[in-house]
Amino acid sequence: MTVLRANIAKWNDDPFVVRVAASPDRPQESRGHEAFLLMGGETDIDGFRALLRFGSGDSSAGGVISLPESFKYLQEGDILRFVPRAGEVATLYRRRSAFNALFMTERCNSNCIMCSQPPRDVQDGHHVEAYLQAIPLMDLMTPSLGITGGEPTLLGDGLIEVVRSCAVHLPFTSLHLLSNGRLFNYMSLSQSLAAAEHPDLMVGIPLYSDLAARHDFVVQAKGAFDQTIRGVMNLKRCNVPVEIRVVLHAQTVGRLPELARFISRNLPNVDHVVLMGLENMGYVKMNLQALWIDPVEYQSALREAVETLAGSGMNVSIYNHPLCVLDRELWPFAKQSISDWKNEYLPQCGQCSVKSKCSGFFASYKLRYSDHIRPMASDDVRGTDSLTRKVGAECG
Q1: How far from each other are the two terminal CA atoms of the chain, in whole angstroms?
Q2: Which residues fall within 8 angstroms of residue 297, CB to CB, at 6 or more apart?
Q3: Measured over all CA atoms, what is the biggest interatomic distance in the chain, rounded to whole angstroms?
Q4: In this predicted model, which residue has the larger pLDDT, 362 or 74?
Q5: How far is it, in rounded angstroms, from Cα 24 to Cα 250?
Q6: Where exactly are the structural domains of the chain?
Q7: Distance of CA 371 to CAs 2, 12, 348, 351, Å?
């Protein structure tokens, strides 16, 4: 698993954001926003905001910052944030990764029973400032960025500023905003997001049941269901693309077919529906007994839900499920969805003929995983292409 944050030696300086430069042949006008990665023997390295090296040491010595060996994945174009007085470094962006995300806040107005990032009531508005510095330094051809938290909409105008900055500096980058959708209940926020005019934006919003009481229980917030539904509708009125996300666990799979019918009948204009496996982090650890269900046990409900959604002409995907636990008919809907920095495979996956197409596991899988994980032999997967063609024909 890739380490994105670390403690380093402290020194007296203000927080700053820099882009990693691995070649000394950089324009002088760019160097003030860059940190040069020393490999030995370089000349003409004046003008850089910082100099970096790997290994232990005093970060103030000679103006060279010492990074831990766990950061050796860094390459030119990656972006770091340093907080010198706290002795902290964080990777904000990796140029060659397809899974970059802007972590906006730890605060949230829900408290989901399976939250992988439990909320904290902290003052963390500095994230907005950091990303507004980082976004102009990112590669113009970055394929996609996530915006996540906590609940990003709690930042109000700060969130809109970040989206607008992405629209200006990264016009070819798709933006995926994860939100519980509750504050989009206010039309003004939906209108502000639309007014940011990002050319390729999707808002991912969770919905856990067709019953208000069940959804409110899962998110631990009374009235959340009504706010979420109104939020989705407001966004669609403002022509903002919306993705409905359903995390599958013992508290949600019981009415999954009913939820699929509710979505297809009441929210038919949403742009994507994602049915997601559980990440064993955060609150899942303390609520595991109430949440855990082997994915094999809900395949019938999952297949019925997919058939309902796809049969209604909706775009539907399955995330975070190894292929060997899915019904074969569902394989065409399964995506490689787990971020590369927390994606792992079991030892038995090494001999699997479809490993390259499989989502694998969250790094937290060791807490609990299906009893039915097995490598798939070539004979097991023969005919998959014809299944894909069949499903495509059924969906029009």
Answers
A1: 40
A2: none
A3: 66
A4: 74
A5: 55
A6: 5-92, 97-240, 252-264+274-390
A7: 27, 52, 12, 18
| pLDDT tens digits, one per residue of 159-196 | 999 999 999 999 999 999 999 999 999 999 999 999 99
Kindly give, in sequence order, each residue whose CB lies less than 8 Å from that of residue 210, ignoring residues fewer than 6 positions away.
255, 258, 259, 261, 262
Note whether 42 and 24 are within 8 A (CB): yes
**Segment 230-254, tens digit of pLDDT:** 999 999 999 999 999 999 999 999 9
Q: Is the pTM of this model over 0.85?
A: yes
Look-up of token digits 């920095």: 341
Its CATH class, for the domain covering 97-240, is alpha beta
What span, in angstroms and rounded, lies between the C-alpha atoms of 121 and 108?
A: 8
Is 318's pLDDT higher than 70? yes
Same fold, 5-92 and 97-240: no
- What does residue 19 show for φ and ψ, rounded to 5 degrees? -95, 135
Are the C-beta atoms of residues 310 and 391 closer than 8 Å to each other? Answer: yes
**pLDDT tens digits for range 101-156:** 999 999 999 999 999 989 999 989 899 999 999 999 999 999 999 999 999 999 99
Helix residue ranges per DSSP H, the chain: 28-31, 126-134, 157-169, 187-195, 212-219, 224-237, 256-266, 284-291, 299-311, 378-381, 384-394
Residues sharing a CB contact under 8 Å with residue 356, sequence separation 6 or more, in sequence order: none
CA distance 98 to 79: 15
Domain 5-92, architecture per CATH: 3-Layer(bba) Sandwich (3.50)
Joined together, the tokens standing for residue 287 give 């609520």
Contact between residue 81 and residue 17 where contact means Cβ atoms under 8 Å apart: yes
pLDDT tens sequence across 58-110: 665 557 899 999 999 999 999 999 999 999 999 999 999 988 999 999 999 99
Q: Please tell me the predicted confidence (pLDDT) of residue 50.
A: 93
Tell me the percentage of the chain whose pLDDT exceeds 90: 74
